[in-house]
Specification:
Two copies of one chain form a homodimer. Helices cover about 75% and strands about 0% of the residues of chain A. Chain A has 14 helices and two strands; from the N terminus they run H-H-H-H-E-E-H-H-H-H-H-H-H-H-H-H. Chain A has one domain: Farnesyl Diphosphate Synthase. By secondary structure, the first copy, chain A, is mainly alpha-helical. At the A-B interface, helix 2, helix 6, helix 7 and helix 8 of A face helix 2, helix 6, helix 7 and helix 8 of B.
């Protein structure tokens, strides 16, 4: 059994590894050079974009496009835009006025290296550059050119990531129900994971029914991913996640294990991943990879 | 002579007053309600958007559209998006890690009222909402639906407002040439003024030649506007500009009067406005209003 779980999860891991290389090359080509003015801004942008991210969101975008269209070449710029916008959120989340994290992925946070002002601007620039990149993306089989922008702004704005981060800040130090934690995780994390799939599906020309399926799958994967992060934060060593152990608890963050304990949080994550695996079976040519991601996420915290 | 300057400048002022009311109504309809969750985020957004802004950028967008098309109704959502993005920049510029201004337009800055974290997020949300609003804007006579996004991201990103603010931060406390100050003002201020005109012109279906003319006019107006702000900061009372007198000097900001003295800065502004008035004559049906704006900006600091 263990062996088949390994095999199932490694299918997605192999895809992720291949996608990472494509994305990193495209990101490098698309970002302003560090030697162009204003240099510290461009260095700050590149520091956080090339900080060892897994490129999960771009990979999901490529995978969804491939699953529908058979090829993901048209989705590469859109995938790059997603990573820019994801990196914007990481830089801003770490700021002293927000989560005040000095470390990210085992390295000093952006504002520690470049100062608070430059970190704020690097985040702002990545958000703008993400939309600029999307507006120059090939359309593939997308019918409405502005649908791409709409998918990503919905996932990013007050009903998505930014609204979720506000809920996160506001819940600090308060007792929070699992329902409210999940509503926050949905906006803060799941909306952009879902948006990444929808973006790839849109470029691939997916039917409305298939898009709904991607949406349902993405929300579950996204929620399970964030609950997994909560669980890792409770358990892992600094080495593994690159920041202080139990930092969520120390800051009174609203988390799934904080709301209902580790065991019930694990059960919630397992339930979501079970549903995701079931939905994954109908996700087109890359169904096996989507199933594999659900297995992979389950393994990550078990 | 004085009387004719009054009459010429008031033509634009009257347009601005009418545009302000249209824009405020459309902004109110488009922004998330303060009673919807997360409430503090939405309150922070509305606090800064409705802080008595002149709505110069939206008015320029409407005016450019009207000048080409004869009507500006199609440009209202795009104009609203510009004000959202402008307000994002004001909120972030005031943050302690940036210009550290406790006051804006005679009221406490966003972060003073809502805290740093919520102010960062309110700015982020306005930037995302600006692009969301643009992606839902009517196209008018624009041929490429994504041209609207491209015009605004160019004006906002590392080659526009955000890059300019980075140059501004980096120049603090350093001796700076007029050339460098103008390069910074061009990105920080003039690019979005120009972008506002280009956006309206695009929706109005302007010819390439007319768009170039709007671009040339916008850069000059934008530079003169920012030099005017520099001059006001040196001279005016706190009451008039809503922040401490001479705050630029106290912070060692790079400004035009700081680089070459008040008199040469005034001459530079007059030169730019003279050129703008000349270009304005060829800007279509609303040429008189565009000329009037140049007169208005000259009057502001004289």
């Amino acid at each position: 059994m263990r062996r088949s779980v390994e095999a199932a999860s490694s299918l997605f891991e192999r895809y992720l590894e291949r996608a990472r290389r494509r994305i990193d090359t495209a990101l490098d080509a698309r970002l302003p050079r560090a030697r162009e003015e204003p240099r510290p801004l461009h260095s700050a942008i590149r520091y956080s974009v090339f900080a060892g991210g897994k490129r999960l969101r771009p990979a999901l975008c490529l995978l969804a496009c491939e699953s529908v269209l058979g090829s993901s070449a048209a989705a590469v710029p859109a995938a790059v835009a997603l990573e820019m916008i994801h990196t914007f959120s990481l830089i801003h989340d770490d700021l002293p006025g927000m989560d005040d994290d000095d470390w990210r992925r085992g390295r000093p946070s952006n504002h520690i290296v470049f100062g608070e002002g430059m970190a704020i601007l690097a985040g702002d620039a990545l958000l703008a550059l993400g939309f600029q990149t999307l507006a120059a993306s090939p359309l593939g089989r997308a019918k409405d050119p502005r649908a791409l922008i709409r998918i990503v702004t919905e996932a990013t704005g007050t009903e998505g990531m930014i609204g979720g981060q506000a809920m996160d800040l506001l819940s600090e130090g308060k007792r929070t129900s699992l329902k409210r934690v999940l509503a926050m995780h949905a906006r803060k994390t799941a909306m952009l994971i879902r948006g990444s799939l929808l973006l790839g599906a849109e470029i691939g020309g997916a039917s409305p029914g298939l898009k709904r399926r991607f949406s349902n799958y993405g929300l579950r994967i996204g929620l399970a991913f964030q609950i997994g992060d909560d669980l890792l934060n409770v358990r892992s060593s600094r080495k593994k996640i690159g920041k202080a152990v139990g930092s969520d608890q120390a800051r009174g963050k609203a988390t799934a294990p904080g709301a209902v304990g580790v065991e019930r949080a694990e059960r919630e994550s397992e339930r979501l991943l079970r549903e995701a695996r079931r939905i994954a079976k109908g996700l087109g040519r890359r169904a096996a990879e989507f199933e594999s991601l659900a297995v992979f996420l389950g393994k990550r915290t078990s």
